[in-house]
């Protein structure tokens, strides 16, 4: 946890705290899943804040362990690669997108079944009001955001090899992500009734894809295109000079405290730092993020924050 990027670490901590709070609250007769889970928007218990809170609630130990393991495994890589602010924005957008898609799917189901024409529903062993029935359409979990992270990892490091149990051989990240998306799509269309929000998972991936494509289009590559573009972006920040400040109006007078920015030693030091970042990015391109030492990971993360 000590070497984990801050957003990834805090997301895991917050999710664990919510899960513990849920276990404690149930002892006092409080159902946090009902209070903080995302209800269908026509249900009596729906509130807009649930679009944010639902992604911190989980159904059981297996549910939260799988999601938090994925956040730890892939989220820390993407946060180090993108920077904390971009990663947090991406995580939230994927979570919100998953919730919106799930609401849309539930609305189609509501119309398809013609539920608006009824006041009560027979659930087999009893008859309940329509409001109580719709309150049961509740979505919880960070899976939508997690699937968005998986997509981002597959797009950023497509040839990174992953060992996935029980497969006997490693699989490239791009094939892993494609396989997961296909499984989720088939599960959603198959209407398996397993209680899993498969369309929400797909929604997280769809919104993640749209955000990544938007970033790539509006950054000329940048951190979201190829790695040579990422290297150029970092070099501009480290090298200083006209590349970094070309968009600013030239002042009438420049006053520097201490060493001048155009001094030979300053430029030589910045050039060495930029070359070191280039070397790290090239190592990531050839051997993957996991091949980096802890010191190299720290330097890449520090560079992404500047």
Based on CA atoms alone, the radius of gyration comes out at: 24 Å
Binned strand content:
under 5%
Category by helix and strand content: mainly alpha
* Average predicted local confidence, pLDDT: 80
The largest sheet is: 2 strands, antiparallel
In sequence order, what are the helices and strands, one letter per element?
HHEHHHEEHEHEEHHHHHH
Strand order of the largest sheet: 1-4
Portion of residues within helices: 55-70%
Give the overall form: elongated
Could you state the oligomeric state of the chains shown? single chain
* Beta strand count: 6
Q: What is the CA–CA distance across the termini? A: 23 Å
Work out the helix count.
13
Spans with pLDDT under 50 lasting ≥5 residues? 225-231, 233-261
Write structural notes for this entry.
It is a single chain. The chain is mainly alpha-helical. It contains 13 helices and six strands. A hairpin with an 8-residue loop joins strand 5 (161-162) and strand 6 (171-172). It starts with 5 loop residues before the first helix and ends with a helix.
